[in-house]
Amino acid sequence: MNRKEHEREKLLAETFHGEWLEGPAATFAQQAARLARQRRRQRRAFLTFAMAAGAAAALLVSLRHPLARTETTTSTPHSTPAYEIISDEELLAQLHDRPLLVMRGENGAKEFVLLDR
Amino acid sequence: MEQELSQLPLRVLTAAMARGDDAAWTEFHRVHGPEIFRRLLAATRGDHDLASEALQQSYLRLARHVRECDSEAMFAGWLRVVARSTLHDCWRRRRSFWQMLQRSHADPTATDFSAAKEHRLLEQLDTALATLEPDDRALLEAKYFSGTDVRTLAEKLMISPKAAESRLTRARAELRRRMIAALSHHE
User: B31-40, pLDDT tens digit by residue?
Assistant: First the structure.
């Protein structure tokens, strides 16, 4: 903006608004300043609240975390065992009338495979 | 010249505006306000009430969104965008939908910012100034174009500063009357 243009703009502004820096138009700038301060306070309050909420949430999670581990530990005995010991009669009852393949391994150990599964 | 165009670097000014500093907003109003008002007045073809309402709303919109900025070109562009969009909003609030359509149909550039409109407005200012009484014109030119303060003007005219202020007010009122007449005639 060059100076000559600014001078004409100021004349134009004061022709329609009276004293530019002390008249009604100056109150627009004061209102804007108040609004900017208000917005800044609101932003700060929001940030403070968000940080407090975040800290509270983190605290809650850290307090709940050991409880969750305890629950996992206590639930272990209820899980199904990986194997079951049965008697000869029960074994024979399960193998009755079912095809069975007997494989001999390299070390001489036998492995039994049910063929109908 | 009474004051320099801008006393603060733009980065400092905008940062202070974002904080809501009164002095920064006064400085902004002094340096950038007249240009924004000139654009608004040109875009509204001399509708002073609408231009003033748009100026006030533009300041409030600027206050909500202003951030630190050190690019003059970027800041000037942003001011133009804010002023234009605010003027459109003010226009919509004032006019009913049908009136807006009628006006838009008659002249699609009714509230647009354009260099031609702004140039025409300043030409009308010069024309109105040239047709003033010589004493009034000399007084306004001394105050605005030579940067003479009111006290010095009063001493030159051998009148009190208060009387000089009154003469300035009367001269501006006459200039305004002639400008409004010219603007409505052009419309």
Answer: 999 999 999 9
DSSP A111: E
Average pLDDT over residues B177-183: 86
Cβ of B29 within 8 Å of Cβ of A13? The answer is no
Considering only CB atoms, B172 lies closest to which of A7, A9, A14, namely A14
Cβ atoms within 10 Å of B187's Cβ, excluding its own: 8
C-alpha–C-alpha distance, residues B143 and A91, integer Å: 116
**Chain B residues inside the 8 Å CB shell of A28:** 29, 33, 55-56, 59
CA-nearest residue to B5 within chain A is: A3
Mark which residues 26-45 of A lie under 8 Å from B by CB.
Answer: 26, 28-40
Q: What is the pLDDT of residues B56-98, one digit of tens each?
A: 999 999 999 999 998 999 999 999 999 999 999 998 887 765 6
> Residue B25: which of A42, A28, A10, A8 has the closest Cα?
A28
∠B25-B26-B28 over CA atoms, to 5°?
60
pLDDT digits (tens, 9 = 90+) for B91-127: 888 776 566 666 656 665 555 677 888 888 888 899 9
Contacts of B137 (CB under 8 A, 6+ apart): B129, B130, B171
Task: Give the pLDDT of residue B3.
Answer: 44
pTM: 0.69
Chain B touched by A22 (CB under 8 Å):
no
Nearest Cα neighbor of B154 from B143, B145, B144, B146 is B143
Residues from chain A that touch B125, judged by Cβ atoms under 8 A, are 8, 11-12, 15
| Pairwise pLDDT comparison (B157 vs A71), residue with the higher score | B157
| Nearest chain B Cα distance for residue A51, angstroms | 21
Report the distance separating Cα B49 and Cα A88, nearest Å: 104
Give residue B185's pLDDT: 67
A4, A5, A15 member nearest B176 (Cβ): A15
